Amino acid sequence: MASRSRKQPRRSRSLGRWLAVGAIVLVGVLYARPLRSYVQTKHDLAQRAADVRALKEERRALQHRLAESSTAEALARQARRLGLVRPGERLFIVKGVSAWVHRKARVEGDGR
């Protein structure tokens, strides 16, 4: 009878160990999805923060460009590009400037 009493505690110990392993596996399975969701959300948040920083920088650059373009000098330059003249000025249109520059560059290149 002494041998039977020894075998039962071994079974109960191994059963207890398997139950502990099973409980740990169950806890791991239950934590897997929330942990994956947390990591994905953290990654998405970092991506959004980077997008916000880039957009703020772009906004700052556009505001700076807008402030520069509304000055009197910038407006005058843009008007000249559009072919507008001030009252009392004459407009002269010179054609073939790009061809002249190209020929001049070629002649200077041959002369050297």
Task: Write down the overall geometry.
Answer: elongated
Rounded mean pLDDT score: 87
Strand content: under 5%
Question: How many individual helices?
Answer: 3
Q: Please bin the fraction of helical residues.
A: over 70%
For the record, give the distance between the C-alpha atoms at the N and C termini, rounded to a whole number: 116 Å
What is the string of helix and strand elements?
Answer: HHH
Largest sheet: none
- In total, the number of strands is 0
In the predicted model, the low-confidence regions spanning at least 5 consecutive residues are none
Radius of gyration: 40 Å
Structural class: mainly alpha
Molecular structure report:
- By secondary structure, the chain is mainly alpha-helical.
- 83% of the residues lie in helices and 0% in strands.
- The longest helix has 68 residues.
